[in-house]
Structure formats: C-alpha cells, structure tokens
Amino acid sequence: MIMMFEGFQTYSVAASDYFIDEPEKDNRECGENEDACCFGVDYLVVIDGATGLNSIHLTNEPTDTGWMSKRLAMLIGEKFSMDVKKTTKALLTECAMTICAELDEFGYESKKNSYPSACISIVRAYGDKIQCYVLGDVPILLHCADGSFMILTDDAVPKRDAKIIEWIIKKSKEEGITVREATKRAKDMLLKNRLEMNMPNGYWIFEPTGAGIEHGIIKEFDRNDITEIALMSDGFYEIYELFGIEPLDVRLFDELRMGKAPVLSRLLRSIQAGDMGCDHYPRLKPADDSTVLYAQVTRAE
Questions:
Q1: 44, 130, 281, 290: least surrounded by Cβ within 10 Å?
Q2: pLDDT digit string (tens) for 219-245?
Q3: Residues in the chain with pLDDT < 50?
Q4: H, E, C per residue of the chain
Q5: In-domain check, residue 186
Q6: What is the pTM of this model?
Q7: Has residue 175 been placed in a domain?
C-alpha cells in the first residue's frame, strides 16, 4: 500500500508497506500492517507497533497491536489538531488513557500485563520552533540548513536485539541451521526483553498505561535551521542501517524528495525475499512493516 499526500505546509511522500511471508504460526498470517502514521499542518507522526509475543487477540482488528496503532494515530490526529497549546507528553497521556479504557472494554482489564505496545516519533511546529519527540526506535532524520545531517532515536531496543541476534547467529552455526530457525530457540530471551518494557533497567515505549511517555526524548530546534525531515519505522530504516541499499547520510533526502520511497521499499522487499533464512543479513524476522513520512519545512516568517 503506497500513500501519497501533501501537508505540513509542503509535505511529500509516505510509503506504508508490508511483506506477507509464508503463513506460519510465528508470522502474522493476516499480513496485518501494524505501523501507522498521521499528519497535519503542524505535526508529523509515525507509529511502529510491536508485534505481540503472546496469542491474545481481543479486538475487532486482525491484531490487537494493529488496532492500537491505528487508534492511536486517529486520536493523535484529533487531539493535536484541537489542542495545539498542550505539551506532546500531555496529549499522548490523554490518548493512552482513552486506549486503555477501550482495550479494557475488549477484555484487557484482567490482562493488563499483556497490553500491546508501540514505538512512536512525533514532530511538531511551534511558531519558529520545531520539536521532536522520540519514544522507542522510530528514527527522526533531520536535514539541517547548514547541510549537516542528524538522527534522533532511542537505541535501547536495537542494543537489546543485537545481543539476541549475536546469540542466534552462534546457535545457527552450532546446530547447522538457518538464523531464522535459530530465532525460534530465542523465544524465552525475547519474552524476557518484553517483560523489561517501561522498567528502569529496561527500555521505554508507548503502551496504554502511559508509563513510558514521560521518558520520551525531546529535542527542539529553530525552524529555520531545519530544511527537511523524515520519520521512519525501523522496517524502512533497515534500507540504510542493515541492508545498505542507500547510504545513511544526507543523500537519502535526495531520494525521498524525488518521491522514490516506493522504489526503495520494493527493492528492500526483493532483497528480503532472497534471504528468507536471514543468514546473509541476520535479523529477528525476514521482513518488518515499513513506513516513512517525509516533509519539507517552510521557513518561519
């Protein structure tokens, strides 16, 4: 699914895409895209839902994580448009309270430790300021007016994943199996990581209790110091960070500016399809939901 739109004074391209793997119990059989994004004249948002590690399914969507990502995007669109003076953390907290109540109506009230979760990044324009908020590993990439390049993200989750992948690679070599097969041996490690969500010695992320919201990273810039912005889920970020399809530097904005996000997404899927065992590019799953939101920033008067 490719979405094209205009906004944020002059926004350009967003590509929302998903890869449907061969149906297996450890892959979402429905191919549900658990990413979401929304935008307005003064905000940009990308949400990367964390695929559940349990079998709980109580909502009316194909996955509960997908339901939460879409509902969160809808609520953010409503609240950020109406309450422009409230802080990002305050508005997110209101969204979390609404989602928590609605999930409890679906039956989560007795399963509060199993709420779905998501990483989220938000960019808001306040007059002559640009504010960036990051909760989890949804990178915000900034092209600065002086030609420099900046990445804002929280690397707590990728660092934890990297340790598990290191163990998986070792196991695959010891047992003579693919990395993908060895990943099934790491389920307990993945569950342990998930249990450390929103804990002081763990990592911070969005979930309906709102516990992680206060720990999101906030950076503010003068509007005239930023010329272009890109928000992307880690599935799209793999184009640069894992697969090396394009360089991870200021040149990536040339591709996005020319509307080549769908081309990059298709190339990513082609490479992933040729490495279904995850051996050439070790990773936790063959493919992930892929979303990018690109904007050109108009100068403040």
A1: 281
A2: 999 999 999 999 999 999 999 999 999
A3: 1-30
A4: CEEECCCCCEEEEEEEECCCCCCCCCCCCCCCCCEEEEEECCEEEEEEEECCCCCCCCCCCCCHHHHHHHHHHHHHHHHHHHCCCCCHHHHHHHHHHHHHHHHHHHCHHHCHHHCCEEEEEEEEEECCEEEEEEECCCCEEEEECCCCEEEECCCHHHHHHHHHHHHHHHHHHHHCCCHHHHHHHHHHHHHHHHHCECCCCCECCECCCCCCHHHCEEEEEEHHHEEEEEEECHHHHHHHHCCCCCCCCCCHHHHHHCCCHHHHHHHHHHHHHCCCCCCCCCCCCCCCCEEEEEEECCCCC
A5: no
A6: 0.89
A7: no
